[in-house]
Write a structure and sequence with these properties.
Blueprint: H1 3-11, H2 31-47, H3 50-97, H4 138-145, E1 150-154, E2 198-210, E3 215-226, E4 230-236, E5 240-249, E6 255-256, E7 259-263, E8 268-277, E9 280-291, E10 298-305, E11 311-318, E12 339-347, E13 351-354, E14 358-363, E15 370-375, E16 388-391, E17 394-399, E18 405-410, H5 419-436, E19 444-450, E20 457-458, E21 463-467, H6 480-496, E22 503-505, H7 511-529, H8 535-551, H9 576-592, H10 594-608, E23 611-613, H11 615-626, H12 630-638, E24 644-653, E25 656-665, E26 682-688, E27 697-701, E28 705-710, E29 719-721, E30 730-733, H13 735-746, H14 752-767, H15 773-780, H16 789-806, H17 812-830, H18 840-855, H19 859-874, H20 881-893, H21 897-909, H22 913-922, H23 929-939, H24 949-959, H25 961-973, H26 975-982, H27 986-996, H28 1002-1014, H29 1021-1054
Parallel strand pairs: 1-7, 2-12, 18-19, 19-21, 22-23, 24-30
Antiparallel strand pairs: 2-3, 3-9, 4-8, 5-6, 5-9, 7-8, 10-11, 12-15, 13-16, 14-15, 17-18, 20-21, 24-25, 25-28, 26-27, 26-29
Helix pairs in contact: 2-3, 2-4, 3-28, 5-6, 5-7, 6-7, 7-9, 8-9, 8-14, 10-11, 14-15, 14-16, 16-17, 16-18, 17-18, 18-19, 18-20, 19-20, 21-22, 22-24, 23-24, 23-25, 24-25, 24-27, 25-27, 27-29, 28-29
Length: 1059
């Protein structure tokens, strides 16, 4: 799932989210009461037409909502208060100890992504000549079983099993006295995986969504194997009401279930049977009803506008991690695989899609306006990869060179916008087939743009779902960064068709393997398709450095985290699983070599195809192919939190250089001096000025200290560690070594990715208080001749972090002067208009530089931006897509109410979601308090799609000191609406981080924590602790370095040699 890409997009001013949290408001159902109503309304259905029938359904649903709402709220409040009490003590202890913390300001990424309303089931037609409706008997069955049926609902959970214990890292930095004391994560909730007595072989699933009343009916006929005799079947089930259930042993009579026990907190249901189900094969039948919710998870509704202006709804799915259970009762665990035979009963004028190709489409016997669409049987697969979509779409299609039918589905009238993604997909499938030496296993692959979608994309097997902005490209109105993002997300999701879908993680503990691998190989794929993107240099800025920023915190976590309760899954859809995972796989690939890496991948995929695997299985395959100690090395990177800082000093001995390397854990709070000494097995590569592009020495550092001799390294030659910035560690050079490297930055003899890595290491060392921030500012001035987009992008992010920090001082304008001085030369060189021979990276660089200069108040840039904006608005000269963001943000930053009104008018007129998002992300640049409030109100209006509200609020928080305060207040004042909108999922975590991460006052950490003690957000617990830690680190950084930085700026102003 493209979470990491979405984070980068959200942060950079472009806008993932994993599936909404299973910690949503729990719904208490009263099935017995519901059946009483179903029985009564069954009589009404005999005499009333279809519209009258659905009107009755709506009335019943309203009654149920009133009956259950109060109990549901009380249940949630009780659980939330209990969790809050557990968390409070640990944080207060942490907050008291954290006074020794040294700071780390906010990451540049970001800021740089209902009540139950059951449906009555239709009685169906009775004419014997007509095909029987799959839903015909449900109402009658419900009535017939009411008297003998028992129902119960409970929120209690069983005792914890061994799977719920936290994963112990080999060595813990918790005892470190120099780092801020880590906040203790709340105790993990008790959890047990589904019992093994019964397992599915095949799901026969028929669903009938109603796109008017937003409900659906379902029939499940599952071929199952009873492995151990039992009188109950335990399945996952959430927000679904079961009407009837029965089990028919192979060749024997049907046994009807006599009770359903809904375990809401664990999202399970237990079907009880009057007699023992013996070992063997049989058929489990379940009739059920559910709601097409508006929470962007499970089986949900997505609002769209037709070309004629009508508002309509599609029915779509998002099941990862644990939301298939909201669409049908199932064994919703990745290791419990089965095949699926899916049918959808839909309006005849709608497109119906699922994982496999359509095998039959025929009129529905009970309603001439409906059709039943049947799909081919899927391969063995996990429930979270099942998908179906019902809506109105156009498509473009082609066949890949290996014969796979590829289609891109777009909103009606926008098929042209699917052609770029189609081109990428058609190139990508053969690339992965050749790379893995394993063919794509399905006959087709559909890529579809969904209007309301929380994540960036989702890799459902054969039917990949995307945000519109992650799939659609308008040849005239899409910017270069959008094209690049679409290419990366398509590459990411199609990689999952092999790595994740064909071979699936055994449990969510191994999620990182799916996502880290896809986040690495998407770059390999894009580099193959678009070598002009220089995408691997961009990887270092977008993934590698962002992962290091998060992993340096005491509230980080190991790559591999033991996951128990489903509510814990959402917390690991983060930069550690995605970006650190991708970074260590990139390091591993470099260490092994491409040929042996590919051999190992082929062995892994063929050995475990259609099965499940753990991290250790991949290591074993790669170790077999390479003969290197892969497991031993990689366990040091995946099973313990953090990463090393390698200190290096050199001594010249005649024509040789003797290097001394020392590794210690890198902490955002300063030098590590814990009682324990975590070690990593680090692939070290070393180059010199003699040949900057090739390693002079490579060695695996597996001890705290290492002495190396570089032969024939003359005194005048510089030495650089971590060639290509591939190893996942930071480097601190002795002062002499660093001084010798600075000329290589100015004269560009150091390769771009190494210039970037050196600068980023220095900046992080300054944030941690290991070196002075002034030293880094001096190094930044050496980049005056820099031509590379990605190096400038990383510089821009770091200067943005420093600007946010210094917004808490009275010399904020001085950092803006510094920014103008640094960026002016490259801005003058680039100009406003493309020159002949320029390409993709030039367009990205121009937009970055002009936006930076405009926000910093560069006079000439501001004047030209205003002129071009006026012409754009008046239609005299439409801005190119690559210039819109920098122009918009510049005029807003220095604009007034008229500017804001004009921008909101452009937003309303925009037909393309990319343009709407582009405007939404920069609105927060406005500076006047009353206009900031107007933007925040706009964020929750109908004009903004639910998933995009977060980027609007985040833009306000990142726009100014005043905006940050206003955004945090707005979040607090509207918390209930925001939390209910996102049901505690990924977007809540992003919202919290964007809103508070930029504060730099000690008391704000206590204020943030206090708020969330009284307003729990379970799926964001770790994010909240990370934000509080960052606030304290920011405050310490400001106290430590602010005055020295101020003096440096004053000296520059007085010096005629300033840049």
């Amino acid at each position: 799932m493209a979470y990491r890409c979405l984070l980068a997009w959200l942060s950079s001013g472009l806008s993932v989210s994993p599936p909404a949290s299973t910690q949503a408001l729990k719904r208490v159902r009263h099935p017995a009461r519901a059946l009483h109503h179903w029985e009564k309304e069954a009589e009404a259905r005999e005499t009333e037409g279809r519209r009258g029938r659905w009107s009755a359904h709506a009335q019943k649903a309203e009654w149920l909502s009133v009956e259950t709402g109060r109990q549901r709220q009380e249940e949630q409040k009780g659980g939330a208060r209990a969790r809050s009490r557990q968390q409070q003590a640990s944080f207060l202890a942490w907050l008291g100890q954290a006074r020794c913390a040294r700071p780390s300001p906010p990451s540049p990424f970001p800021p740089p992504p209902s009540f139950f309303c059951p449906r009555l089931l239709s009685a169906g037609g009775s004419a014997p000549a007509r095909r029987a409706s799959p839903f015909a008997s449900v109402g009658a069955a419900a009535a017939a079983t009411t008297a003998s049926f028992s129902f119960s609902t409970t929120t209690a959970t069983q005792n914890t099993s061994s799977s719920a214990s936290p994963f112990p890292p080999p060595s813990s930095p918790a005892s470190d006295s120099s780092c801020a004391a880590a906040a203790t994560m709340p105790e993990k909730r008790p959890f047990e995986r589904l019992p093994a007595e019964v397992r599915p072989i095949n799901y026969g699933l028929c669903l009938k969504p109603d796109l008017i009343d937003f409900t659906f009916e379902g029939k499940l006929e599952a071929a199952v194997e009873v492995k151990h005799a039992t009188n109950q079947i335990v399945m996952n089930c959430a927000d679904i009401d079961i009407i009837t259930a029965s089990y028919a042993p192979e060749g024997d009579e049907e046994i009807h279930a006599t009770g359903f026990n809904y375990q809401n907190e664990d999202e399970k249901v237990t079907l009880s049977f009057p007699s023992t189900l013996q070992k063997g094969m049989g058929t489990l039948k379940i009739d059920f009803v559910g709601e097409l919710n508006d929470k962007m998870k499970g089986f949900y509704r997505s609002k769209y506008t037709t070309p004629s202006g009508d508002t309509r709804f599609a029915a779509v799915t998002q099941f990862e991690a644990t939301d298939a259970r909201r669409a049908f009762p199932c064994w919703d665990e990745p290791a419990i695989k089965a095949t699926f035979d899916i049918s959808l009963v839909v309006p005849k004028d709608r497109v119906a899609l699922s994982n496999m190709n359509v095998t039959d489409r025929r009129p529905y016997p009970d309603d001439e306006n409906l059709v039943e669409v049947k799909f081919a049987r899927t391969p063995v697969m996990s429930t979270y990869l099942v998908a179906f979509v019902v809506g109105e779409y156009d498509f473009v299609e082609t066949r890949s060179t290996d014969g796979v039918l590829v289609r891109v589905y777009t909103p009606v009238g926008k098929a042209e916008q699917g052609k770029f993604a189609l081109e990428v997909a058609a190139k990508t499938l053969p690339f992965y087939k050749d790379y893995f030496n394993v063919p794509y296993p399905l006959p087709k692959i559909d890529l579809i743009a969904i209007a309301d979608f929380a994540a960036g994309a989702m890799e459902n097997w054969g039917l990949v779902t995307y945000r519109e902005t992650a799939l659609l490209i308008d040849p005239k109105n899409s910017c270069s960064s959008s094209r690049q993002w679409v290419a990366l997300v398509v590459g990411h999701e199609l990689a999952h068709q092999w790595f994740g879908n064909l071979v699936t993680m055994e449990w969510w503990t191994h999620l990182w393997l799916n996502e880290g691998f896809a986040s690495w190989i998407e770059y390999l794929c894009v580099d193959h398709c678009f070598p002009e993107y220089d995408i691997w240099t961009q990887f270092v800025s977008a993934d590698y450095t962002r992962a290091q920023e998060l992993d340096a915190l005491d509230n980080s976590h190991p790559i591999e985290v033991m996951v128990g309760h489903p509510s814990e899954v959402d917390e690991i859809f983060d930069a550690i699983s995605y970006s650190k995972g991708a970074s260590v796989i990139r390091m591993l690939h470099d260490y092994i070599g491409d040929e042996d890496f590919r051999k190992g991948m082929h062995l892994y995929l063929t050995k475990f195809q259609h099965k499940n695997a753990a991290t250790e299985d991949l290591w074993a395959s790669l170790e077999h192919a390479s003969g290197k100690p892969i497991a031993a090395m990689m366990n040091t990177w995946t099973k313990q939190m953090g990463f090393p800082l390698v200190y290096v000093e050199a001594e010249q001995q005649e024509d040789d250089k003797v290097l001394k390397l020392v590794q210690k854990k890198f902490c955002a709070s300063g030098p590590y001096s814990g009682e324990d000494y975590p070690l990593w097995m680090i692939p070290i590569s070393i180059c010199t000025s003699e040949d900057p592009d090739h390693a002079k020495m490579q060695v695996l550092m597996d001890k705290p200290e290492l002495m190396l001799v570089l032969k024939d390294a003359k005194p005048e030659q510089w030495v650089k560690l971590n060639l290509g910035t591939v190893g996942f560690y930071r480097t601190q050079y002795s002062s002499n070594m660093l001084e010798s490297l600075l000329p290589a930055i100015r004269d560009l003899t150091l390769p771009p990715v190494d210039r970037l890595g050196l600068q980023n290491d220095l900046f992080s060392l300054a944030r941690a208080g290991i070196i002075s921030t002034v030293e880094v500012l001096k190094v930044m001035e050496a980049f005056v001749n820099e031509p590379n987009y990605t190096v400038w992008s990383d510089l821009s992010c770091n200067l943005g972090i420093l600007s946010t920090l210094l917004s808490h001082t009275d010399f904020y304008e001085e950092i803006q002067t510094f920014v103008r001085d640094i960026f002016s030369p490259i801005g003058e060189k680039l100009g406003w208009d493309p020159k002949p021979g320029e390409g993709h990276l030039d367009a990205l660089l121009r937009g970055l530089v002009l936006g930076k200069l405009g926000k910093a108040g560069h006079k000439a840039t501001l004047e030209e931006a205003r002129r071009r904006f006026k012409d754009h608005v008046e239609g005299k000269h439409i801005l190119s897509a690559d210039l819109r963001s920098p122009v918009y943000v510049t005029v807003l930053k220095h604009g007034d109410s008229t500017t804001l009104d004009t921008m909101l008018k452009l937003h309303k007129q925009a037909d393309m979601q990319e343009e709407k998002n582009r405007i939404e992300r920069v609105l927060g640049a406005i500076s006047q308090p009353e206009l900031i409030q107007k933007v925040l109100t706009f964020a929750l209006s109908e004009e903004v799609r639910p998933q995009d509200t977060v980027s609007v609020i985040g833009g306000v928080a990142g726009g100014s000191k005043q905006g940050r305060k206003a955004a945090w207040k707005f979040v607090r004042d509207n918390w209930e609406e925001l939390y209910n909108r996102y049901q505690g999922g990924f977007l809540i975590s992003r919202l919290i981080k964007l809103s508070v991460d930029g504060f730099a006052i000690d008391k704000m950490a206590a204020e943030v924590k206090a708020f969330f003690e009284s307003h729990p957000a379970p799926s964001a617990e770790r994010t909240i602790q990370q934000c509080c830690e960052n606030i304290l680190l920011n405050a310490a950084w400001l106290k430590r370095d602010a005055e020295n930085v101020h003096q440096y700026f004053l000296q520059r102003k007085a010096s005629p040699t300033a840049v």
